[in-house]
Amino acid sequence: MYTLLVNSGLSAEVTAVLPRIETLVVVLFFALFAMSFDFISGYTGYLSFGHAAFYGTGAYLVALAANGKIPLLGPETPFMLLLVLAGVAAAALAVAIGSVSFRLSGVYFAMITLGFSQVLYVFVRDWDFVSSAPRDGVAVTGTLEGFRIGVPWVDGLSVAIGQLTGDSVEGLFGFITLSPTEVSFYAVGAVVLVCYLALQRLVHSPFGRTLIAIRENEERARAIGYNTYAYKLGAFVASGFFAGIAGALFVGFRRSVTPENGFYFLVAGDALLVSIIGGFGTLAGPLYGELFDATVREFLSKEGGGGGLLPYLRANVGDATLATEIYNGLTVAEAIDTFLNGHAALYVGLLFVLFVLYVPNGLLGTARDRMGGTLAKAVPRRLRRWFDG
Amino acid sequence: MSAIAQATASLAPVAPVGAALPLQFADALIEFLSPATLADVIVRGIAEASLYVMIAAGLTLVFGLMGVLNFAHGSLTMLGAYLGGLVLVATVAQSTGGVGRLLAFGVAVVVAFGALAALGGGLEIGLVRPIYDRPPLYQILLTFGVTLVLDELARILVLFYGLQPTTVWQDVLGTKPAFLANSVGVAGVSASGLELFQILFGVLTVTGVYLFLTRTRYGLFVRAGGEDSEMLSALGVDVNRVFTVVFALGTGIAGAAGVLLAWDPSWGASVPLAAETLLPAFVVVIVGGLGTFRGTVVAALIVGLVDSSMTWWFQNFVDFTGLPEMVVFLVLVLTLIVKPQGLYGVSEVGGH
Which Pfam families does this one have (chain B) (predicted)? Predict the structure, then answer.
């Protein structure tokens, strides 16, 4: 699909606008994190501002285990096992944090989770056990092989992921050839899909319905006889579990993690951002939100490697136009460089504010409202009516 | 002090473990409790408390009246630091004397307060007002978005003028009068001039806000609006205007705090200052209890003293860089566990 578009007539435009495959892998695991965030915050209405703690736990667990820093888990531990262990560790942390935090509600809940995650952030940032320079994070140095997704201990049924360490596939079914990053994309995608389906199952179970009841009117849910504390804690633990898996996938692909992109509270802020843009309280929404966010960020990225606005303009707009002075010696090229490149946060932030004000249900939520149901059901119905009509 | 001692004792394994650890600990404790050290730590703690109360006062005013937890507060402080820094750099020359520099500082505070109050008023009317009737979550989201935009705008402007956004703007530190950097010895306790200046500034702000709340007609509206804003509007007060004024006042104080921070070498004007001030401000406001000014002042004192004593322990005994910061967040967590509404919080405020 991507190759098809890139080789089409609008090749330059398509390369500029569409994100690269490396970005799409990031989209996948971060979307899983955002989904887990949305699962607790969007469905129960409890804003878990310290959600980065679980993501960071999963990420650090994999990195430390691969470096042989964790007893009983050598560098040879299969990645699939690490994935589950990362989830379990994050879930255990969620039990600890949640059992205290769910005595509070509203703003206080957001603040106490934020407090916990910042304690962990500072701790990990300055704890010299994790690496010799804990502020710069941990890189996987204990093993040179890629982390394998698939059936553990069976090389034929698993693939390694990572940009440099991943497997490439040649001639599968005679015609499919995939680069290591593309293999990573499908492998990570498979894990994310399984997690998504599990979360989806939870949301549509009686358990998930109760969570929505808690969001809408907690007192009434309690009056009917639900132990809301237990439900909220259960949801928090499940959410922590999947956030841990997302963190593990992150290290599996990137092979390094820093306190800033693992534990810092703004990581949870990013999850919040993409959840809102995609649709708060819709499980798939964060995926679209993250896809959108990543696309904008890459379009305006500083490096401009592969796609993006800068190389597109350089290639397709004349030098004379770019060198035109707008104001006081400031050329067009410089203006773009100053105001657009690397500053996607500004535009995403503006858009976010507009979304909060005018599209509170986000992309997916609004689409569902328009169509009157989930897209999977509503679109065929519309089409059928259109063809019959 | 015993609570701090226990907290430190539990953290002690982080320190280089020797055979005589309890002995070293006792030594350090005795040194910590000696009058000279204690007085030093207390003075530094009060100076830090003054900074914290400046950062948090605006946040607590806005929350107390409107129930809006303003995530953009840190960014507004950061903008204040840059604006004030701009005024200071523009007006202070190499030859300007100490008094002249203090005057310039006064001008900078006034400019930052005015500009940010105007910006805050605009934000309230344009963005916050339409969503008062939505769940509190949306106000957090909205102001969080405003933070992203403000930070990125600041980063663009700072880069445009050839400064590094992530490092402290050194020129502003250079405009500080020399006598603020010297230590003053009073009755065996030495404090730097800057610390005394910060304490003075903090006390002035607290007094000012307190007088505003208790002695002026508007302060009366603010306190009444915090209790029941519908009733207030039924009595014929234009509540929307009160909201706007308080929001403007809160952001103005944030701006003034920013100017004060721009002179402090351990903070300084930089873009990351936004997040650096937002988090302690949250801690202070939550520990004190959302929306109570008295609680905020007390909590700022607690956090300031904890911070300065933990800094001492880190420098002298515990080998862990993040100790003060971590303990400050632990104070937040512990307070919420023991007293879920904060020290002076009222149960209705904040979605309880």
Answer: BPD_transp_2
